[in-house]
Each structure stands twice: as structure tokens, then as C-alpha cells.
Automatic annotation (TrEMBL), chain A:
Keywords per UniProt: DNA-binding, DNA-directed RNA polymerase, Sigma factor, Transcription, Transcription regulation
Protein name, per record: DNA-directed RNA polymerase sigma-70 factor
UniProt keyword DNA-binding, yes or no: yes
GO molecular function: DNA binding; sigma factor activity
GO CC terms of this entry: DNA-directed RNA polymerase complex
Domain of life, source organism: Bacteria
Automatic annotation (TrEMBL), chain B:
UniProt region (Disordered), positions on chain: 65-84, 213-234
Name of protein: Uncharacterized protein
Biased composition (Pro residues): 215-224
Alphabetic keyword roster: Membrane, Transmembrane, Transmembrane helix
Transmembrane portions of the chain: 40-60
Phylogenetic classification of the source organism: Bacteria, Bacillati, Actinomycetota, Actinomycetes, Kitasatosporales
Amino acid sequence: MADWAGLLAELVAVRGAELNRYGFLLTGDRAEAADLVQEALVRVFARPHRSWELGRLEGYVRRTMLNRFLDQHRRRRRYALLVPRVAGPEADADHSGPVADRLRLLTALDALSPAQRACVVLRYDEDLPVAGVADRLGCREGTVKRHLSDGLARLGAALGTDRRAPEEGGGA
Amino acid sequence: MNPEELREQLPGAAELAEPPELDTALLVRRVRRGRLARRALTGGTALALAAAAVLGAVRWSGPGGGADAAGPSDDPYACGRRPPLAGPATANGVTLSVASVRRAGHDAGPVIEAGFRTDRAFEAIGSPPNYLEVLYLRDGVVVGGGPVLKRPGDRYEPGVDAVGYVYHLTPDSPLRVPLGARDGLCPSVRWSQVWAEPGRYEVVLLVDPPVELNAPPPSGPPQPRLVARAPFPR
């Protein structure tokens, strides 16, 4: 097995669950998350790289997932009226307590624009500073702050916890 | 919603993702196919091209042969660079053009169609239309484009799908190919700026010369990419 194949197997074994989790927060859909991870892995490993260090490869994969997620939504916007939305996790059978809260949060995340959602996930799940989020998305810090502020407001409204964030979108 | 609450709740929501079912063997096979196609498309061996043709996986667009070897920061098609655009508009009997550029809105990129004119009927294989490369230039400098737009300092090598897509070319009517969304701009530019001074901007299409379906693999060095340019609509 070629070196890259060994690295691919190692990355899947060691970080596959984390990548899947990241994809799920971005998409809110298990199947889409799995697709996102697989497509990103194939793209990254099919291309030449200067460094084949595992941590760097994971960074490439995450960046590819993010780009693909945003790209898919740009295209999907045009077909939104034609393609019926597949049932999300809220269609699952009876949930209560913490699981219901999690589902509500996922549903609320669905109401965000792709850019807002990406900012929220990168900032509050990946814990990137605002500058890091801006770098990842290729936009200005001010844009990230605006997305975070708007995103938090929308989430608050959807979850019935509407109060302005003291922090956002500030600081590192 | 409070950021701290969100920080606490997001990991819980992420737990709803089931454990991934990633088939490593399948991934390895797919990567191997992609690598074969890449090698063929960057002027690699005839054997690799044949394999890619069998798989129906030949890339038509994306970085040229030299670009792969160069680091992203050396990429002449990245934001802020003045790209070389000396490539021909015609190769192998096919002429590339920007068939139309229409304004779609104040905050969005133009709607673009690529045109392919040919002197004979044949089927060409290449990347799907949404992967044909577009650049937006302001006074000759890259300020946007897509799908592969490298921003300043971007050291990431974006992937390009190596999926075969068949174009039916006939001599009687030029093929017009809608390219889909190309809204990417470099960080210093906004669409409102572009539409305020459209005369300073132009659209550039970069497409690898078409490969005829089922034809023997081309010999010799890789051909330069076809280049077509058009001004922004006013």
C-alpha cells in the first residue's frame, strides 16, 4: 500500500469521528456529513502536497469540507424550489429531554445562512478566534463578526433565548 | 443566544452524528482513480491517460501542468497576480469564447455562458461546466473568479473533481454552456465596486483543450489552455 494510502487509513481511524462530527454540525444531516467527509478525503489525497503530516492533512480536509459545504449551498439555492428537502433529524422518533434540546438546536442552526452557520461552528465548536474564522472563510473579520452576531440573534429567536451576546463577535 | 450557552450545547448536538461508516478501501480506490486522472491530465504517461479514459475521468480544466508543481503562493492565477493569458482561443478544431456575460444583481457575479465552436461533429470529454475556470480581472489583475480562486496567502491546494463530462459538439450550432455561480471575489473587492465601474473589469475563461472521446491519447507536451475574454456588461 502506498504511503498516502496508509496515511488515509490512519487519518480515518484516528480522526474520522471528529471529521464526521464537524460535517454534521455544518450540514445538520448524517448522510450529507458522511458525504462531505468522504468527498473531502478523496480530493485531498488525490492531489499532491508539500507536507503529508497528519495534522496538516486534517486541516486540508476540514478546509475542503467547509469550501464544499458553502459551494453546495450556493448551487442548491438555485434548485431550492425543485428539490424537496429530505427529512432532517427532527423526523426521528420520539425524543425528549437533552436529545430534544439538541434537535432543537440543530433545527435552529438550519435557519442560519451557510456563512452564518460556518462562522458559528468554527467559532464556537472549533474555538477559532474571529481572525482565524475570517482566514478560513477568506473574508474580513468584520464580516465574521456580523455573521456571528446575526447568527446568535437568529438562534436566540428560534430557541426562545433571545438576548444579545455580550461578547460577539469580539476577540480572539 | 449567549456564546457560552452555544459552546456548551454544540458538542451535544454534534453527538447526534452517528459514528462514521468510512470504507477505507473504497476511499483508497477513489483516490487512486483521481490520481490516475490527474497524471493523465497533467501530460503524464499514455498508460495513465488510457486508464483515465476507461474510467471516464479526464479533467478538462483546473491548474495546468506547471501550476501543480508550483506552490500556491506562486500560482499566477491567484488573487492579486497578473496572469499570463497568451493562450490560444482555438485548439484541435475547437474555438472557445465567452458566449454571454449578463448582470444578475448588484451583489452577485455575472451570469456567464461559455461557447464552443467547432468545424466538425464530435464528442469531447472534460470537467462538468461548474468546474470550468473563470477569472475576473481588474486592469489585468485577478480580483475574483472560480471555482478555484486562491486568495492571498492561501497555501491550500483546492481539489478539482476529475469526473468526465461529455460535450456534444457540432459544426452547425456553437455549443453554449451555462457556467453556474461564479461569485468568488478576492478580499479587497466587493460586487458593488465591480458594478460601479464595470469598464475596468473583464471575464476570462480558461479551459484545457478538449479531449476527443475514445480518441488515442495525445502525444507530446501538454497543450496550453484555451483562453477567451470578454468585458463586463455595463
